Amino acid sequence: MSRTIICAKLKREAEGLDYPTYPGELGKRIYLEISKDAWKEWLNHQTMLINEYRLTPMDPKARKFLEKEMESFLFGGGSSMPEGYVPPSTK
Predict the structure, then answer these.
(1) Under DSSP, is residue 15 helix (H, G, I), strand (E, B) or coil?
(2) Gap between the Cα atoms of 14 and 52, Å rounded
(3) Which pTM value belongs to this model?
């Protein structure tokens, strides 16, 4: 049985996550306030950030950067785009 939440990112009722996807207090907040669709959007954005900035997720500085961007993307005004980023064409 899926649960329904009011998604903080999408500003509408949506299907909630099945389980916490991130540890700690931020993870609890994500589980309670972020929908599956918004989480998928974040995962795509995170992949772009990792690729564009050539981040190594094992690096503590990269993890801290990604966590800050994640919180901004999901709960704030959005995450920053890398300078000169051109999205791939969707043909």
Answers:
(1) strand
(2) 30
(3) 0.87
For the chain, counts of helices (H) and of strands (E)? 3, 2
Which residues 6+ apart lie within 8 Å of 24 measured at CB?
none
Q: What is the CATH number of the domain that holds 16?
A: 1.10.3880.10
CA distance 45 to 43: 5
Extract the tokens encoding 28. 């609890």
Q: What is the pLDDT of residues 51-79, one digit of tens each?
A: 999 999 999 999 999 999 999 999 987 77
Residue 72's SS3 state is helix
For the chain, what is the domain count?
1
Residue 88's pLDDT band (cuts 50, 70, 90): confident
